[in-house]
Amino acid sequence: MLTFIIRRFLAFIPTIIAVTFIIFVVLNLLPGDAAFVRAAGFKRGVANIEGIAQLREQWGLNDPAYVRYFRFLGGLLRGDLGTSYRTDEVLSDVIKERLPVTLKLAGISILLAVVGGLTFGFLAAIHRGSIIDLVCMVTAIVGVSVPEFWVGLMLMLVVAVKWGLLPTSGYSSGNILFLILPSLALGFRYIGLIARITRSSMLDVASQDYVRTAKAKGLSLFSVRGKHIFRNALVPILTIVGLESGWLFANTVVIEEVFGLPGIGRLLVVSILGRDIPSMQAAILIMVLAFLILNLAIDVGYGFLDPRIRY
Question: What's residue 310's pLDDT?
């Protein structure tokens, strides 16, 4: 297992290089001029031509594309994410400040999605064809169908505005109340998705010969459902959790903007509006790294859930 983890970490190197190249090419093909946006100060009118030329020279935008790419790659090797075109802030410091917010949001959302999805799916599977199964699956379909921003707005309207139970938006470090509504809005879709996969996987495992053998041997219903059905059904569920967690990180962009959270997602939105390429590169790269680490954790989890899977 240790050898597998080391191999996967080494495989991160070419993956990250490929990702940095794709990010650099795509972002530098976007229309617009960061120097013009900065020189104009986001105001209407004509920016000073000398100011634009000075900024382009200062940021190295007049250099060939391959020079700028290797400069960007060299900075990453030194742990330097660059400097923001918009605010002149060191991006390493900006990421350190904003990353905890996004990690807390994503972590709570994943926890809610996994616990809620497994619970709904388990109940639907063991009560197949009953009213409990119907309610759980209808809830799951609704969760998969509605977009995260709409769920966020509805939670904000009902729970925060009408009932006054939780803050509507913003963030206060150390106060978990500001993350409850955003986490529910972000994780609601994934609760439905995991519930449907859990139900399907458990019903498939329940029809296997070894489950019928366990029942014939007189094992308790709790043991059959917990040890033989639920545990073996977790392997495909874990795959879905790993894949969807990547999309969940990507969707933090929407939720952070809706709830005004100062995380990586909101940094990406502001950077796009300001044509701030270094900030966009840093934010996207952090999200890619989070996705890769999550998938590594999922792969390692396979070996613990199913003894037949060993690396």
Answer: 57
Give φ, ψ of 127 to 5 degrees: -115, 40
Q: Which residue has the higher pLDDT, 181 or 30?
A: 181
What is the pTM assigned to this prediction?
A: 0.84
Is residue 45 over pLDDT 60? no
pLDDT at residue number 14: 86
Confidence of residue 42 (pLDDT cuts 50, 70, 90): very low
Residue 36 phi/psi, 5-degree rounding, is -65, -45
For the structural domain made of 96-305, what CATH number should be given?
1.10.3720.10
Distance separating alpha carbons of residues 188 and 280, to the nearest angstrom: 27
User: From residue 166, how far is each of 109, 112, 156, 231 by CA, in Å?
Assistant: 17, 17, 8, 36
81-101 per-residue burial string, b: 16 or more CB within 10 A, e: under 16 = bbbbbbeeeebbebbeebbeb
In the structure, what pLDDT confidence band is assigned to residue 43 with cuts at 50, 70 and 90? very low
Whether 5 contacts 304, CB under 8 Å: no
Q: Report the chain's mean pLDDT, rounded to a whole number.
A: 84
Which residues of the chain does CATH 1.10.3720.10 include? 96-305
DSSP 3-state of 147: coil
Task: Give the CA count within 13 Å in the CB-facing half-sphere of 257.
Answer: 17
User: For the residues of 19-71, what is the DSSP string, one character each?
Assistant: HHHHHHHHHHTSSS-HHHHHHHTT-SSPPPHHHHHHHHHHHTTTS-HHHHHHH
Question: What letter does residue 230 receive in the DSSP assignment?
Answer: I
